[in-house]
Design a protein that fits this description.
mainly alpha; Citrate Synthase, domain 1; Cytochrome p450-Terp, domain 2
Length: about 425
């Protein structure tokens, strides 16, 4: 890990000095105004967070360290982790060092398996996964170093250690949660000669005779890695991390937010809607049938899952990447064909609904159909996949925050009566 630590030591020192000078000179400049509607609307659109790992412009979608996602879809998740941490894609030797570090750290303590084995058989996969992360807190290098006493400038180093230890173990934990929860057989030991995503597919135990599932998993774990700092999981984890709680606490807490139906749970709801649509029409419906069904859905007061996004005003580039994968590897699959036809029809319908600002699909509109094609039909597990990927971004944000010395998060809250007084309502 010497190459990575050396690069980060130099980079963080330069960035910290730059930020310090920047804030000193421009600290009194206003960057955002908050309306009453925003205060009561989840602070939507309020510029009040710093996230250097990624951003999501409404007209471009996810940009990781200055690189648009469409230029990263062929990269390994390990390369994305390196990019998130350093701002640069790794050279061949740097990637090899990182991969070797992850392999070296991938073995999960036995007590984690014992805890998972003791949980009720019908536990939700996310509850199992997040419990496994939290129960490993005793392994935290940051917690040990903090108890011993260390300088603030050193906080990022044990946080990086925790990041690599956690990221290395998540595929094994996630795979065992899948096998145990859905009665797929005993735990499969990890390999030491394959990349991170391929090892995950190996431990899942799903058939992958031509390597397509591995290719999909590499893409999936890349596409979901980060999405700036204001989404529920990233913001929750960052808030916990800001209290100097270690990453086991912070990541577990953030992923508990990811389990919600308004966040990570959405992908299974989208696939459920696709399958219900196919059941209604006895197979893949025509575009004409889909157009009428879309209007019937909207007129009944329901929404079309997977369409619209809180930030984006274009087709989610992550959906584009999944669509391209499906066209290449499963063009004749009836579920994927339905997803493709919905994409051809639904945006044109939604454009006619005046109140809908974003008629385009988000990542959840297509991801589940691809997993379904390769035999992963257990909807409730999909959010665990999302979590394994999103840990890359959450942990990277934590390392950067510790390196920059960002303070504890503490926005000001007011009661409704005070807001009424401020706007002259009383």
């Amino acid at each position: 890990m010497e190459m990575l630590k050396t690069k980060l030591s130099k980079k963080f020192a330069e960035e910290k000095a730059d930020i310090s000078a920047f804030v000193k000179q421009y600290g009194d400049k206003e960057v955002s105004k908050v309306t009453l509607a925003q205060a009561y609307g989840g602070l939507r659109g309020v510029k009040g967070l710093v996230c250097d790992t990624s951003e999501v412009p409404p007209d471009k979608g996810l940009i990781i360290r200055g690189i648009e996602l469409k230029y990263l879809t062929e990269k390994l998740p390990e390369e994305i982790l390196y990019l998130l941490l350093t701002g640069e894609l790794p050279k061949e030797d740097e990637l090899k060092e990182l991969q070797q570090e992850l392999i070296k750290r991938q073995n999960v303590p036995q007590y984690v398996w014992d805890v998972l084995n003791s949980m009720p058989e019908d536990s939700h996969p996310m509850a199992m996964f997040n419990t496994a992360i939290l129960v490993m807190q005793r392994e935290s290098i940051f917690a040990k170093r903090y108890a011993e006493g260390m300088k603030k400038d050193e906080y990022w180093e044990p946080t990086l250690e925790d990041t690599l230890n956690i990221v290395a173990k998540l595929p094994g934990i996630g795979a065992y949660v899948y096998r145990k929860r859905f009665n797929k057989g005993p735990r499969i030991e990890p390999r030491t000669d394959v990349d991170w995503a391929q090892n995950f597919v190996h431990m899942l135990g799903l058939p992958d005779p031509n390597g397509e599932l591995t290719k999909l998993m590499r893409l999936y774990l890349t596409l979901h890695c980060d999405h700036e700092g204001g989404n529920v999981s990233a913001y929750s984890a960052a808030t916990i991390n800001s209290a100097l709680s270690d990453l086991y606490y912070a990541l577990s807490g953030g992923l508990n937010g990811l389990a919600g139906p308004l966040h990570g749970l959405a992908n299974q709801e989208c696939l459920g809607w696709i399958l219900e649509t196919m059941e209604k029409f006895g197979g893949t419906p025509t575009e004409e049938q889909l157009e009428k069904f879309a209007w019937d859905t909207l007129n009944s007061g329901k929404v079309i899952p997977g369409y619209g996004h809180a930030v984006l005003r274009i087709t989610d580039p992550r959906f584009d990447a999944f669509l391209a994968f499906g066209k290449k590897y499963m063009q004749d699959d009836p579920v994927f064909l339905t997803v493709e036809r919905v994409f051809n029809v639904v945006p044109n319908v939604l454009k006619q609904v005046q109140k809908i600002k974003d008629p385009w699909p988000n990542v959840d509109a297509g991801s589940g159909a691809l997993l379904y094609h390769y035999g992963m039909t257990e909807f409730s597990y999909y959010t665990v996949l999302f979590s394994i990927s999103r840990a890359l971004g959450i942990c990277s944000q934590a390392v950067v925050a510790r390196a920059m010395g960002y303070p504890i998060t503490r926005p000001k809250s007011l009661p409704t009566a005070k807001f009424k007084e401020l706007v002259g309502a009383i």
